Every structure is written in C-alpha cells, then in structure tokens.
C-alpha cells in the first residue's frame, strides 16, 4: 500500500495535478494485483497479527487505500486475473470512463517478491525457468523469470484532456477481454491461439479498425518463455494481422 501511494502520487505529479485538483473528484481507482506475499508471511505467525492486519493485508484495500488517502470518490477495486491483472484493470477503467461513471481514472499494478511460495508453486508446474532467464520465442525456452515492480497511469476522456490542456502520453483506441473456456480442448493453464486471435480482432473492430488493413506497428506480448505460451501467442498474432495472406510475408511488426 505504501509503495502504491507513492507511485500514484508521482503519477499525479507527472500529470501536472496537485492533490487539491483530485480531492473529492469522481476519480475511479483500478489496481491490478496477483500475489500477496506479505499476507503469506504474516499468516505463518498469526500471533503477530495486529489490529490493522485486516486492512493492511487485504488486496481490496490496495485500491481502497488510494481512494481514501486522496479522497477519490469513483469506483475503487482491485483486479486479479493473474498475469493480465493490470491490463484488465485498465480495460475496466476505460469502460467506466466511457459510461460516464468517472471523470478520470487511476490505473495501477503492483507485484512484490517477498516469499518463496510462488517460486515453489510455479516451479512445480514447470512454469518458471530453472535458470531464472526468460528466453521468449527461443528454441531453448524453459519458463519465465519473475519480476517485481509498481506502476500507475492516469486516464481521462480525450476530449476532456484536450479541453483541460493536459499532457497526453498516448490515446487508447480500444480494449477487450475474453477467456479461452475449453477452446482447443486444452487445459486451464494452456493458452488458446484461436481465443487470442478472436480477442485481437474483436478489439480492433470495436475501435473502428481493421486488423488486416490497419497494420499494427508494435505489439507488446505476454512473452512467457514457455513452449506452449510462445507458440500460441505467435500463432495468434500471425492469424489476427495477416490471416495467412502471402502478400503480407514481407511486412514486419516489432515484437
């Protein structure tokens, strides 16, 4: 919570806003979070849990603490969709802005490596590289390496940002979310190229774009460094943007 408070404060500073500017505003808060290592640590020694443990360790309070500290009065929620948590948090924030549920939104993501439990669980599933090195799309790929960090961005409807003369880093044309279900008959942790392709194409259509005509110039991938994950993602990108067309073979996209 402390690191999130500091990071979001810096995001407000970067946006050129003072705390008075956001005090009492209809600003929503969306925090992506997957693991809670400190809760695992504290749970091993329950005698040390104090009166503030419930609010200090709850994942929901990660967002609520920001709303409380900065007096932000829009929706406030933490999102856990594993590796996509921060992006799904951004998607929900975009939807809220489009529906007029908030005037602006704080989107943040945080991950701290404080305990060995997730290393043990990930290693037992052969997801984590025994060499602690992620070799994305490499024939020797054998898993990913965990990382930690905290980041925050401020979202606002484009027309409002232009009106207020805000510094604009980028424009979000669209966002989308789906699930594999039982696509391809694979397991719950195995990604589906078909589902990923469908999501990319639907998101483009919702944004008024054609993935086959409005060619992507830069694509940031999940990049798990696993044999199953890398192959699925590469296939999905190929199918979404080129659809097997021979004339597209000489076109490049940065990954």
Automatic annotation (TrEMBL):
Cross-referenced CDD domains: PKS (cd00833)
A Pfam family recorded for this sequence: ketoacyl-synt
Alphabetical UniProt keywords: Phosphopantetheine, Phosphoprotein, Transferase
Keyword Transcription regulation: no
Gene3D superfamilies: 3.40.47.10
SMART domains linked to this entry: PKS_KS
Domain Ketosynthase family 3 (KS3) intervals: 1-255
GO biological process terms held by the UniProt record: fatty acid biosynthetic process; secondary metabolite biosynthetic process
GO molecular function terms listed in the Swiss-Prot or TrEMBL record: fatty acid synthase activity
Superkingdom, taxonomy of origin: Eukaryota
PANTHER family given in the database record: FATTY ACID SYNTHASE, HYBRID PKS-NRPS SYNTHETASE APDA
Identification of the protein by name: Polyketide synthase
Lineage: Eukaryota, Fungi, Dikarya, Ascomycota, Pezizomycotina
